[in-house]
């Protein structure tokens, strides 16, 4: 109907009536789209600090139909199209007021994306400048408040504070109570983002107390700010108490970690002083703020619609957890809140509340209830993923709760549902990038390794058989083996962060790893099996599996796992099976070697020339060798799709906290994960990444997806990738690589299939026993991904 009316107006040419009609149609379409988004749990989800809902658009007077654009996105696009055209027509007609009205409504309709926000900022700033010049204080205050909302969404809280302080005196509470409330609420919100200390949070709370009777939509931010202020009060009290105990200003972050994980400091247990400070009940002031947050949120819950109910319930959940901890009272409250929140409308709060409930059940040892809650968490997470508008948003959602599937799987194990746990782990592997799930029946021994705060489990699959081995090794104990804060050299990660050789750290982790895997070894060897593919989850990606200290059942002698079991890793059972197929089907092809690239930002690698010579010799001089200026990014991306073997002796860059930073450093540029994933399908039998720490993966953002360089190459089509967990001396690497390729060459000469895993095992043993490099630091860092 609206489109037909607009068509009739178009026949009349450039008229004010047409401009006004466009304006009114666009405004109504935007309001309808926004309402639909809220009903569907889209736009209403928002982010904390995005600005108080209901920023003031000049929405016009028309109540006519906005057209029948399909879906929320269609209506929003139709609104933007109409408002853009309306604005242009007002400009051509010379009607400044019409232009500004269209500008501000267009600005609000554009705020669904970063680019739209930036355009909205320009449009509202244009209107604000005009109102400053014209002297219309009412419109000036409105524009300043709307621009403050956009500034908050763009991460500019300081500017938002300035704008709100400009607008507030222009709309006295006696004359414009609702307008004053909008501006005051956004000022309060901006203050919490500028400097979230107790003083500014306290000022914000006082402002919200004045605003709430006038503006119900401010209740959610009021409750959040009360919780933030309670946390600041708690932190301040802890700092004062610990300063008194220790006699100097305390680093709360370090002391809190010392309480949670004393092993990371080489301590047998937490100090009583720390336990009392960090785990004691809330103080009087903190408790009062938490109770105020609960009361305010509960009052809103009685009248809130389904959209606003979610954030309010989340505030009650957070406050209750702090007030009562892992208790029956907390369980009852969280269960009630789960019933109030519809995950189809507000999935974010629903997921937060349900995960809190799952964690409390787990801490109380109620594993069936924890299992049910974790499975509900995964259902909500899948709903959110299905609504993700882009791959970037999907990755962000996964990174927000990377360990959820691992915790759910462990709960299933504790309930005796090991098969369901294995299926869950496989179903949720590689959700950020990889192929879809496949049945997990495998014809070779494969083990999922899981560590959570409550312990570890290894799920061993062999055909239709599934064995489960539980262990006391917790994720906290693993953290302590990775990060030794008193002596960094004792931690597998902290040693590398300090540019120390992780010699002691590798030996330190070998014992616990061996105890976790000993029953797996016993089972495999008893049944005549000597191979194992491990699918690590979370921190297990960085374990030096080959160094795990086990006892050989045949001899009773202790030794490294890599001596008695032929090991490989895979990001999933599906990828393990696929890599075996690729290995069997790999056709003939060339070998290419990259070494000693020229970089202005990294040291030369002259030792890699000897390594390249060792590798070239194993191919009888028939490999293509690219050194120095020839070892470029462009050459690698050109050569990889057509080669059978690729050996890359170069620098690597890694970050355990961000997979996007992982790359290979070659002459003229860096090869990133995106570069590798964008390649045509590879046919490579083997890619050897002889660069520092290329076997590592993101442990924070997507910790259960094993995202790293080996993962990228496997998903690009390689059958096998050899990489390193830590830097090793050039000479040792050259010796190891030479032996490894000679083993493969001997297999080819004998007409045997190239067994990469076996060649790796033999090379590790040769280096350890025949060359005087017995310490696992020298050989346990070389790992195989794939087959």
Global structural class: alpha/beta
Tell me about the largest β-sheet. 6 strands, mixed
Helices, by number, come to: 32
Distance between the termini: 63 Å
Strand content: 5-15%
Provide the domain count.
Answer: 4
Return the CATH topology of the largest domain.
Answer: Rossmann fold
- Strand order within the widest beta sheet: 9-8-10-14-15-16
Mean pLDDT: 81
- Shape type: globular
Q: What is the CATH first-level class name of the largest domain?
A: Alpha Beta
Q: What is the rounded Rg?
A: 31 Å
Low-confidence stretches: 1-14, 28-73
Keywords:
787 residues, alpha/beta, Serine Threonine Protein Phosphatase 5, Tetratricopeptide repeat, Nucleotidyltransferase, domain 5, six-stranded mixed β-sheet, five-stranded mixed β-sheet, 32 helices, 16 strands, 56% helix, globular, disordered N terminus
Kindly describe this structure.
This protein has 787 residues and is of the alpha/beta class. The chain folds into 4 domains: 1-109, no CATH class; 304-427, Tetratricopeptide repeat domain (Serine Threonine Protein Phosphatase 5, Tetratricopeptide repeat, Alpha Horseshoe); 446-568, Nucleotidyltransferase, domain 5 (2-Layer Sandwich); 573-786, Rossmann fold (3-Layer(aba) Sandwich). It is 56% helix and 10% strand. It is built from 32 helices and 16 strands. The strands form 4 sheets. The chain has a 6-stranded mixed β-sheet, sandwiched between helices. A 5-stranded mixed β-sheet has the order 3-2-1-4-7, with helices on both faces. Strands 11-12-13 form a 3-stranded antiparallel β-sheet. 52% of the residues are buried. Mean pLDDT is 81; it is low at 1-14 and 28-73. It comes from Paractinoplanes brasiliensis.
């Amino acid at each position: 109907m609206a489109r037909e009316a607009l068509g009739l107006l178009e026949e009349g040419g450039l008229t004010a009536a047409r401009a006004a009609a466009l304006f009114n149609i666009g405004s109504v379409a935007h309001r309808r789209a926004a309402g639909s988004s809220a009903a569907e749990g889209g736009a209403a989800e928002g982010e904390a600090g995005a600005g108080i809902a209901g920023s003031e658009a000049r929405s016009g007077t028309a109540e006519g139909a906005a057209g029948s654009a399909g879906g929320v996105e269609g209506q929003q696009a139709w609104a933007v199209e109409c408002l853009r055209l309306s604005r242009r027509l007002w400009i051509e007609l010379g009607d400044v007021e019409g232009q500004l009205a269209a500008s501000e409504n267009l600005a609000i309709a554009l705020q669904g994306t970063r680019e739209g926000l930036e355009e909205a900022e320009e449009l509202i700033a244009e209107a604000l400048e005009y109102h400053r010049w014209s002297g219309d204080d009412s419109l000036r205050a409105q524009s300043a408040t709307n621009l403050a909302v956009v500034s908050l969404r763009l991460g500019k809280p300081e500017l938002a504070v300035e704008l709100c302080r400009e607008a507030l005196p222009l709309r006295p509470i006696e004359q414009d109570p609702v307008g004053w409330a909008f501006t005051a609420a956004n000022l309060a919100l901006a203050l919490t983002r500028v400097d979230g200390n107790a003083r500014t949070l306290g000022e914000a709370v006082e402002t919200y107390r004045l605003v709430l009777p006038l503006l119900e939509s401010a209740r959610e931010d009021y409750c959040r700010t009360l919780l933030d202020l309670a946390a600041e009060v708690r932190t301040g009290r802890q700092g004062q108490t610990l300063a008194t105990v220790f006699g100097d200003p305390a680093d709360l972050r370090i002391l809190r970690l010392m309480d949670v994980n004393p092993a990371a400091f080489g301590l047998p247990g937490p100090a009583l002083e720390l336990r009392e400070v960090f785990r004691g009940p809330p103080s009087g002031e903190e408790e009062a703020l938490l109770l105020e947050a609960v009361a305010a949120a509960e009052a809103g819950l009685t009248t809130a619609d389904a959209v606003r109910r979610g954030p309010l319930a989340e505030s009650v959940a957070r406050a209750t957890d702090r007030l009562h901890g892992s208790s029956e009272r907390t369980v009852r409250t969280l269960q009630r809140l789960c019933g109030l929140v519809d995950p189809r409308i507000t999935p974010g709060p629903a997921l937060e509340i349900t995960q809190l409930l799952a964690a409390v059940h787990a801490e109380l040892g109620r594993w069936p209830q924890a299992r049910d809650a974790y499975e509900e968490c995964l259902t909500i997470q899948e709903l959110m993923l299905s609504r993700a508008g882009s791959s970037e948003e999907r990755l962000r959602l996964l990174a927000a709760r990377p360990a959820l599937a691992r915790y759910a799987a462990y709960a299933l194990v504790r309930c005796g549902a090991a098969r369901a746990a294995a299926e869950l782990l496989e179903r949720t592997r590689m959700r950020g990038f990889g192929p879809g799930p496949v049945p997990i029946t495998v014809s070779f021994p494969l083990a999922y390794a899981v560590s959570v705060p409550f312990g570890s489990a290894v799920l061993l699959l062999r055909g239709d058989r599934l064995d489960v081995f539980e262990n006391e090794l917790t994720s906290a104990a693993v953290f302590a083996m990775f990060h030794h804060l008193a002596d960094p050299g004792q931690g597998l990660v902290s040693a590398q962060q300090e540019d120390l050789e992780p010699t002691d750290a590798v030996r330190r982790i070998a014992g616990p790893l061996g105890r976790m895997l000993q029953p797996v070894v016993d089972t495999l060897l008893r049944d005549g099996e000597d191979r194992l593919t491990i699918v690590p989850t979370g921190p297990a990606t960085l374990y030096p599996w080959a160094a795990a200290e086990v006892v050989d059942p045949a001899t009773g002698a202790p030794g490294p796992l890599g001596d008695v079991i032929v090991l490989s890793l895979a990001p999933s059972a599906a990828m393990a099976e696929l890599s075996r197929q690729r290995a069997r089907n790999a056709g003939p092809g060339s070998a290419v070697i990259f070494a000693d690239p020229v970089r202005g930002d990294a040291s030369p690698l002259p030792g890699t020339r000897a390594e390249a010579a060792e590798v070239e010799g194993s191919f009888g001089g028939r490999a293509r060798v690219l050194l120095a200026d020839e070892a470029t990014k462009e050459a690698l991306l050109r050569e990889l799709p057509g080669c059978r073997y690729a050996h890359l002796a170069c620098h690597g860059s890694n970050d355990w906290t961000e997979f996007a930073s992982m790359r290979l450093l070659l002459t003229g540029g860096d090869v990133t994960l995106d570069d590798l994933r964008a390649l045509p399908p590879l046919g490579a039998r083997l890619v050897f990444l002889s660069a520092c720490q290329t076997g590592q993966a993101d442990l924070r953002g997507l910790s259960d997806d094993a995202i790293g360089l080996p993962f990228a190459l496997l998903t690009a089509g390689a059958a096998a990738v050899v990489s390193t967990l830590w830097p090793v001396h050039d000479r040792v690497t050259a010796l190891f690589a030479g032996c490894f390729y000679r083993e493969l060459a001997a297999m080819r000469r004998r007409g045997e299939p190239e067994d990469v895993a076996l060649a790796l095992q033999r090379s590790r043993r040769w280096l350890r026993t025949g060359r005087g490099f017995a310490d696992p630091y020298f050989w346990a860092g070389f790992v195989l991904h794939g087959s």
